[in-house]
Design brief:
Largest sheet: 2 strands, antiparallel
Strand order of the largest sheet: 1-2
Low-confidence stretches: none
Shape: rod-shaped
Bound molecules: zinc ion
Structural class: mainly alpha
Number of helices: 4
Radius of gyration: 27 Å
Mean pLDDT: 87
C-alpha cells in the first residue's frame, strides 16, 4: 500500500494514478517495465562475443557491446567476466589473423616472384 505524493490518499501499489487527484503513483511507475528494454535475464551478447572471438574483429565488436551491457546492470546474469574474456581472446585472435595474413601475403608474393619467368 502506498500514499499519493500530492494529496496523501491511500492507493494500491499497482495503481498508476491517484484515484482522488489523478497524480502519478511513482511507486507503481517505477515497477512498470520499459518495453524497449531487453528482458532482464542472460546477457546473450557475452556468449555470442565469446563464440565469435576466434574470428577476431567481430568478436571485439560483440564483446565490447556485451561489456557495455554487463555494466548497465540490466541483466540478472550480466556475464561480465565472460565478456572481458571474449574481448581479450578477440584481440589476440585479431593479432593472430593479421600476422597470418601478412605471412601468407609474403609467402604468396615470394611465390609469384619465383613463378615470374
Ligand atoms: Zn492524490
Amino acid at each position: 500500500m502506498s500514499y499519493c505524493e500530492k494529496c496523501g490518499a491511500q492507493m494500491d501499489d499497482t495503481t498508476r494514478f491517484c484515484p482522488v487527484c489523478g497524480a502519478e503513483n511513482t511507486a507503481a511507475a517505477a515497477q512498470v517495465v520499459d518495453p524497449n528494454q531487453p528482458p532482464q535475464g542472460l546477457n546473450v551478447m557475452a556468449i555470442v562475443g565469446m563464440g565469435l572471438s576466434f574470428i577476431g574483429i567481430p568478436g571485439i565488436i560483440v564483446s565490447a557491446i556485451a561489456k557495455k551491457r554487463a555494466k548497465s546492470g540490466q541483466y540478472r546474469n550480466p556475464l561480465g567476466p565472460l565478456a572481458t574474456a571474449g574481448l581479450v581472446v578477440s584481440i589476440l585472435m585479431t593479432i593472430f589473423w593479421i600476422a597470418y595474413i601478412i605471412i601468407i601475403g609474403v609467402a604468396v608474393a615470394k611465390g609469384i616472384g619465383q613463378i615470374n619467368y
